[in-house]
What we know:
The complex is a heterodimer.
Chain A: H1 19-31, H2 41-53, H3 66-75, H4 82-113, H5 122-145, H6 155-172, H7 178-205, H8 209-236
Helix pairs in contact in A: 4-5, 4-6, 4-7, 5-8, 6-7, 7-8
Chain B: H1 20-23, H2 35-61, H3 66-84, H4 93-114, H5 118-146, H6 151-154, H7 188-211, H8 218-240, H9 248-269, H10 273-301, H11 323-333, E1 336-339, E2 342-345, H12 351-360, H13 366-371
Antiparallel strand pairs in B: 1-2
Helix pairs in contact in B: 2-3, 2-4, 2-7, 2-9, 4-5, 4-7, 5-8, 5-11, 7-8, 7-9, 9-10
Bound molecules: fe (ii) ion (6 copies).
Residues 101, 104, 131, 134, 204, 227, 231 of chain B line the site of one fe (ii) ion.
Amino acid sequence: xxxxxxxxxxxxxxxxxxxxxxxxxxxxxxxxxxxxxxxxxxxxxxxxxxxxxxxxxxxxxxxxxxxxxxxxxxxxxxxxxxxxxxxxxxxxxxxxxxxxxxxxxxxxxxxxxxxxxxxxxxxxxxxxxxxxxxxxxxxxxxxxxxxxxxxxxxxxxxxxxxxxxxxxxxxxxxxxxxxxxxxxxxxxxxxxxxxxxxxxxxxxxxxxxxxxxxxxxxxxxxxxxxxxxxxxxxxxxxxxxxxxxx
Amino acid sequence: xxxxxxxxxxxxxxxxxxxxxxxxxxxxxxxxxxxxxxxxxxxxxxxxxxxxxxxxxxxxxxxxxxxxxxxxxxxxxxxxxxxxxxxxxxxxxxxxxxxxxxxxxxxxxxxxxxxxxxxxxxxxxxxxxxxxxxxxxxxxxxxxxxxxxxxxxxxxxxxxxxxxxxxxxxxxxxxxxxxxxxxxxxxxxxxxxxxxxxxxxxxxxxxxxxxxxxxxxxxxxxxxxxxxxxxxxxxxxxxxxxxxxxxxxxxxxxxxxxxxxxxxxxxxxxxxxxxxxxxxxxxxxxxxxxxxxxxxxxxxxxxxxxxxxxxxxxxxxxxxxxxxxxxxxxxxxxxxxxxxxxxxxxxxxxxxxxxxxxxxxxxxxxxxxxxxxxxxxxxxxxxxxxxxxxxxxxxxxxxxx
Lengths: 246, 401
Ligand SMILES: [Fe+2]
Ligand SMILES: [Fe+2]
Ligand SMILES: [Fe+2]
Ligand SMILES: [Fe+2]
Ligand SMILES: [Fe+2]
Ligand SMILES: [Fe+2]
């Protein structure tokens, strides 16, 4: 069993490390003044300049087959926003697929740095991993059914991948602990919960009743994942006893 | 530990071996290690990168040296890997950038203080004030785009205030060429200093050219573009102070001596024992490489290596804060620019430099935009003042003081 508490040590990042040196730092700002006037709004202006000329991240690919085109078109009542639906399905697919890899890393963390008293059994983490994998495969089938290409990286998938790149980086770093990495999982599961809610509504709007049923099963899984991760974190941080439930 | 450059045999080349596991060592800690450990890692990565760069240029011009160069270069490449991979994965490219500028400030200051040639000492002080300004501009970027304090990296050793403003550092190319030392008259210290700073600046340029486009914010992308351009000027300046009439083998010998000198300086100052063991191991490797090249030099040029290097190393680089020296230099020399090989007051700059600067800045200056009114404070400028949120209307250009 590993400890879930950080160590106290010689962290050198704060000004408290050396009051003498940091006093000098502040003195320097009094003698050597800014070379131009203004404030951080200058950065906003440049952002505006570039936003005006910028292209989008990219686009959603058209369905690869004529059959797909027909199907998409069939369901493509204006209110159903089929392109947005494909974009968001692609987003979830990418997120779930990366989620599988994050839970794999979490399990190796568990094996090498150990779990903690009141924390999860290995099997419980494995089960979450399996469910993320099922979600990925389910989305793959859903996109195919609509005539879309599940291997395409859609703009929303790409955007979410950029957002979650830090989650992956933090769980694969050999210096992070299992308990710390549960926080990375928490971030994933929080996003997962909201995004699946949204996806069910989009499926409903597109008239995809089978998908609504499948996606509701995923929502139940995600609720369960979130509850478990929150509970384990509470135990790891000493906010709750070693009891199950939340 | 006393080093004898002419006698020490170091580790023979055949015994300089690695494994992949060995090349990828545990990293230093961004939070707990001393800032100078990061400074040494960044500098030594640059020194090894130069060993490779030089080795390739030399090979392209010297068929008879190619096998020898390939042999040594393979080791240099692995040395660079082991050193560069000491940087931890939780250190972002911008955080590493702060480390690069701290190298350019503190190592250049150390060299400027020890340099026996007064003209070259002036060259180092001149470059120093420019890199000093870069630290301030990148710190403003880190604070204002990411909400992070660059002092968590420089650890209060290096002031975060303006130097010679980056926006006025842009000059005509001809105004970046300096006078060179004379190979037969210059002391070994002069040569080793020049090779060291040239290597550091070249690596800095290449690093900014690699990570600049990975930055998402437009001002950040512009700032990397602007400062990379200055680093190209710096490489131009520092390579021009080296005597171009040195033979290829003579330069190779000096590169190896530079590596010995720098690993020796690192060994003398390192506090992280795991990192220190690497510096010690590579000091011995470089002595072996120096021996190999000295033998080659003596055989092929029929000259004594003692004509190029002396037994004794110059005193090691001081890895300490040079705050007072930097401030004195700021007070005395901030207003200089370069005109040809000379340093002159800014109002005497060349027409070509003025035009070059006005051209580049004619659509605005990234370094001015990012740092308009910026005053570093512990814990970021948000500890001094509330954020100034844009009202969505048109810009006002920042004005120079
Ligand atoms: Fe999921
Ligand atoms: Fe989940
Ligand atoms: Fe080397
Ligand atoms: Fe610089
Ligand atoms: Fe520089
Ligand atoms: Fe070497």
